[in-house]
Amino acid sequence: MSRPPLPPFDQDGALLKVRLAEDGWNSRDPARVALAYTPDSLWRNRSTFVAGRAAITDFLAAKWQREHDYRLVKGLWAFAGNRIAVRFAYEWHDADGQWWRSYGNENWEFADNGEMRRRIASINDLAIAAADRRLLWPRDGQGDRRPDDHPGLDELGL
Hints:
Layout: H1 11-27, H2 30-34, E1 37-45, E2 48-51, H3 53-66, E3 68-80, E4 83-93, E5 99-110, E6 116-128, H4 153-156
Parallel strand pairs: 1-6
Antiparallel strand pairs: 1-2, 3-4, 4-5, 5-6
């Protein structure tokens, strides 16, 4: 299966790949998100190592059970050939109602068909007050995509 845009990436292709990834993760649908990765994809997410689509699906299902009202914004940092580097911020609250903003960087490597075969994520969490949230857009029930006119990371100072 092909998942355009395909490597080698140009500026437009890299920007589109980042936005498609953001849209997928904002859906909070583990099965949908896992399809963006090769069947044998390798991840390092914080200090957790994940291998393969089934494990990715399980990892994401557990993540979104813990991280309520999750909203994510990604931004392109750099790209070359079949690799893209992004930075991101997401906000969520835990079961006790504490809000968090998680910041991070990801390095992605893609197979020729456009599926991601390697993801390396470094993430830090910051407790925030609900009044300090910045990733606010209405839920649409159709994947909860960030509206095109909602500020990105730079505009939000993140």
